[in-house]
Amino acid sequence: MSNSIETGGLPGRSLRERFPLLALITERLVLSFVLLFAVSVLIFGGLEALPGDFATTYLGQSATPQAVANIRQELGLNRPIITRYVEWLGHAVQGDFGTSWASKNSVSEQIGHRLGNSLFLAGFAALISVPLAVGLGMLSVHFRNRLPDKIINVISLAAISLPEFFIGYLLILFFAVKFGIATFPATVYDTMSFSERLQAIALPTATLVLVVLAHMMRMTRAAILSVMSSAYMETAELKGLSAFRAIVKHAAPNALAPIINVIALNLAYLVVGVVVVEVVFVYPGMGQYMVDAVTVRDMPVVQACGLIFAAVYIMLNMVADILAIVANPRLRHPR
Q1: CB 186, CB 200: distance < 8 Å
Q2: What pLDDT band is residue 38 in, cutting at 50, 70 and 90?
Q3: 100, 114 in Cβ contact below 8 A?
């Protein structure tokens, strides 16, 4: 009996041995939830540790100590931090992020509108940048060490070196101020048509595409080049398969796992790192909402935005890990 269990021939095997793929996916899910919980503690505790106070900011420097104490009591800031954290997390899990201290509006309702705008901007940028990055990466490998490859590398290095706010200001200067062919600020509202929205987000979308395109393209190129030295690629070329077709048919699919990882990381950046771009273009998204809340120390808004940004980032990384597991047999059956 012991031999059969050790060899895995009978039902005595562990669940991990019988369902390795399911076990790995479950591990990623559990780790993601644990990480999100830890991030929620850091967000709440970190904001509580910051110097300053909303009551003082809200009432001004001339506020009396009694007025400040009344505001703190009204907002529940005089209660223990653990009690407030547990209450906040319990409501956040249910989608209730409380009420904005500054505007007295529901944070969840405001975020629902703003998050839609941010996802629209990030999604459209991803729709352009992902296929373009993969295509340019394969093209760069095809013309390796030749003029097209060198041009692509120089442009990508320049794009990586420039911060997103600088790229944004350059685009505003040339396309909005000098040529007048683009819209600034990038204001969107509910009654706008789809084409009007696309016109409004043209410059912030171009900024995000330029920021993430170079990194994705270079990582795609590196992943495919690492596969090109494999024996089966040499066999494919010896069989008469053209170089570009061998890249598309054999190299790219086998380099899928690292490509998926880098795309997922950059997609996470598109949602989380959109803060700077939204501020530059005065775009009414989550980033702008969070920055406005930070200036007046509106903690419920800042906490909600921070938790949502963290959840999106962790979720996209989890999806990347799961897709990499599914795409790579060596990860599905670890030794």
Answers
A1: yes
A2: very high
A3: no
> By three-state DSSP, how is residue 99 classified?
strand
Arithmetic mean of pLDDT, 329-335: 55
| Global pTM value | 0.75
Task: Please report how many Cα atoms fall inside a 13 Å half-sphere around the Cα of residue 169, on the Cβ side.
Answer: 5
User: Whole-angstrom distance between the N-terminal and C-terminal Cα of the chain?
Assistant: 23
What is the average pLDDT score of the chain?
Answer: 77
Cβ–Cβ < 8 Å for 277, 204: yes
Reply yes or no on whether the pLDDT at 231 is more than 80: no
Three-class SS of residue 257?
A: helix
User: Residue 101 carries which DSSP code?
Assistant: T
Pinpoint the alpha helices (H) of 107-201: 107-142, 147-161, 164-171, 194-200
What would the two tokens of residue 35 be?
């990480």
How many other β-carbons are positioned within 10 Å of the β-carbon of residue 51?
4
Backbone φ/ψ region at 229: left (φ over 0), alpha (ψ -120 to 50), beta: alpha
Q: Which amino acid is at 295?
A: T
Backbone angles phi, psi at 76, to 5 degrees: 80, 20
